[in-house]
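Task card 7
Instruction: Convert sequence to structure tokens.
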Amino acid sequence: MRVAIIGAGVAGAAAARAVQRQGHHPVVLEAANGIGGRVRTVTFDGFSIDSGAIFVMGSYARTLSILREQGHLPAMRRWPARTAVLDDTGRKHRVRLDRPWTLLRMPQLTVGDRLRAAREIGRLALSPDRGPFDIDDLAAADDGRTLAEWAGDHLGPRSFEYVVRPLMDPLTGADPTTISAAFLRTLLTQVQRTQLTVPDGGLGRIAEWLLAGVDDVRLNTPVLGIEHTADTVVVRTPDGTVEADAAVVATDVRTATVLLDGVVDSAITDALAAVVPVTAHHIVFGYHRDPWPRVPYDLVVHGAPGMHHNYGALLNGRRAPASVPPGGQTVSIWLDDAQTRGLSEEQIIAKARRGVAMAFGDTEPDFSRVFPMEVALIAPVPGHYAAMRRARDAMPARLRLAGDFLTHSGIEAALLAGERAAADLGAVQSSRVVGG
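Output:
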């Protein structure tokens, strides 16, 4: 069976790997000039820059299992995520992002706040594990409440502002008053597995490792359209058509909506069109000499009402030492669409510089890079997981859907979606063989 895989991010790479392991032939079509999608690592002036994702969590069970199988775990470096929470007085309070319970140290919390939050976190930690990237577990955990509503009911308003938001803003980048509480509720069932690691060479290595051994990967090949019948799928590209027995659409949600419009049932594309993307700019400043060698934290996030204008400022040389030349440093800062709308690139850079100055101090960078992210993450509103599961399951038998947007965002979510798409195609092929 020949399978066209549209997209060479983690979802597409995982689908291609699984298809090949089934004994079939994947053809990977990628519009960009490199693989990785939103986890792509780019190089510039001797620096490696992760343009999207910045770590692998300990709860990425399937990702870590594959890396172990491939022998790549020794290349994964532990990042202790030394974090400072910047409050509304300008003070910084040191916590650990990889140890969420340390946020209970925030001085704005009363003893009662801490006891209430600790009791709920402990209850979830002792409950049966639920997969924070598994669509079935997330749909089951989605009771219709937003993250803000659930936190208000179970943790209290101060814990919401000084515990939940500093933790979730860097992870989701979405407004907690609109997104489902399911992700945090399932994540806390695995709170003992929140350690963070980063591969030598950047997060883009994960997509590269997944595609190792896949020979037919075509870069600079955007897909213009898809046609399918009961037996074949035809994918149109600027270089001609690719005929296949099946296809996996493993792009971002906006691209998937466009490609599938008029190709599949309108209920599917309507569901995809309803997904709320988080648009942002990722700004990176580079320094050949580290301006902050003695700063005792790697990441600064906000922990106060009204201060959530970015997702944090991060010293990448601490997170991934191999990403910078000896003695060098890069700092990343993410600004959401509300903060950059209508601004020129020069104005965005200036605004990002002010955010870095607030976090670490102001120093003239040697270079700056801006990565516009039309779909940086998604905002999974209540009901999102069940809607995406219905859309995935309603796809034609030979045309499958993959992408982290089926749950929310992240490497594990993308990988699971890619493997599920390949498994569904394998089941179709097996039934065809059995049926003659």
